[in-house]
Amino acid sequence: MSISVECPACRALNAISNTVCSSCQIRIPPLNRKVWLRYKINGRSRKECLGIIPLKEAKEIEIQRLAEIPRILKSNDMTWSDVAVNYITKIEAEKRSRNYINDTKLYLERFKDYVRDKPVSLITATDVKAFKTFLRSTNLSEATCDRHLQAGKAAWNYSVEEFKNPFSKVKLFNPDNITERYLSDEQRFRLLDAASKIGRTFYEIMVVTMNTGFRKAEVLNLKRSQVDFNTGVVRIRQKRNLSHTTFLNDSCRSMLRAIPHNGTDYFWVSAKTKKPYRNDWRSAWEKAKALAGLPADFRWHDLRHDVGTLIYAATHDLQAVQRFLGHRQIKTTQRYAHTNPEYLREISEKLNVALDRCPEGVLKLRKKK
What we know:
With 369 residues, the chain is of the alpha+beta class.
C-alpha cells in the first residue's frame, strides 16, 4: 500500500517524495495536491482518490484501509449464490409481489448457472457481456435480457461494497424502452367486442384498464373503498407500494357501480378463495387478440401505453400523461410522445398553401437553357 500525489498538469501519479512529475517533468507543488491511495488485494490493483488533504490525514486513512483488508479478503469468499440469497431475502422482506420475486430468482439463478458460482471478486464486465450475448442467443427478447441484467445489478449493489459493479459497465439493449404501441379506434372496438364474448369479468377488467391505464395488478386489486363514486376520484397502490390518485370517467364509474357485491371489498374475487383474482388471463387474452385481429406480440401492458398515447394526442401535454398514469419521472412518460400518423395528416392539411390564389408567375418554373 502506498500514497501517491497527482500531477496538476498531466494527472500522472507520483511518489510523495517527488518534487517533479516523472511523466511531464512539471514541478509538483508541495501543498494543495490531490492525494491517492494505491494497493493490491489478491493481485488486483486498486486505487482510491482521497482528495486534496494533508499528508498526515492521508497516512491515517492508509492505516484504516490496512485494518479493513482482512474484511475485504473475507468478502472474496462470497459467491454469486450468496449475493442472490441476500437480495431475495431483501425483496421478500419488502413484501414484493410473488411474480416479481419468482422472476428475480429465475434471473439470478440463470446468471449463477452461467458463471458457475464464481467468487464475486473474479466476476468482471466481460462475464456480464458474455452472459448478455448468451441470453440473446437463446431467443429471449431484448426486454427480457435487460431484466436479467437489471436484476443482477440490483443484487450486486445490495450485497457487494468492495468491488465495482460489473453490470453497470454493460449497456442494455433498450434502456429507454421507447416503443410505439397503440391501437386505432377500430382495433379498440374490436378488442372490447371480443372481450365481451369471452366473459363478463374479463370484459369488465379490460374496460377499466382501457379507461385508466392501470397495470394488471392494480386493476385486479382494485377495491370499492378506493373509489369515490360521487367525484370519480380513485386512489390505488402502485409498484413499490407507492400511492397514486387519479380519476375515473363516467362510463367506467357506472360500470364499476353496477358490479354486484361479492362479500368483500374487491370488485373481482375468486369464487373459491374469496381473494382477488390471480388469473393471468393468458388464454383469454390470446383468444381476444385473435378475435380482434391484433398482432401476436401485443401485450396486456400495451393497453396502458395506448391510454398514454390517447391522452397525449388529446392534450399534447407530457405532464398531463405523467400525472394521470402516475409516473415518477418524466423520462418514463416521454415514450408516449410519438404522434399518431392521422394527426400528422391533419397538420399537413393545415399547412397546405392555397396555390390557386398565388400569382401566376409564382407557379411557373423557369426552363433550363
